[in-house]
Amino acid sequence: xxxxxxxxxxxxxxxxxxQGTMRAFxxxxxxxSCLNEARFGIAWGAIGAALAVAEHALAYARERVQFGGKPxxxxxxxxxxxxxxxxxxxxxxxxxxxxxxxPSA
Length: 105
Description:
Layout: H1 20-63, E1 65-66, E2 70-71, H2 76-99
Antiparallel strand pairs: 1-2
């Protein structure tokens, strides 16, 4: 449900109304501050999704049988792809955790 506030018939001094460039600046600053506050939640949400994908990929590689009745997880190339996926997720976790203690740029 969305709620809107309408200021069409609001009585106020003309000096108190933000005009043109100043209005755009304030809207930009509000938008950026919201993104700045939400960035850790967004990052950890993406990491959680990546972990779920990695777990699903590993389970699939263990159950999929190919090339003479062996699961594809037994093949070195598939193992390399899975390890690369997990290492990239670990790097993202470290970067996100480290950035929590750094001052904002």
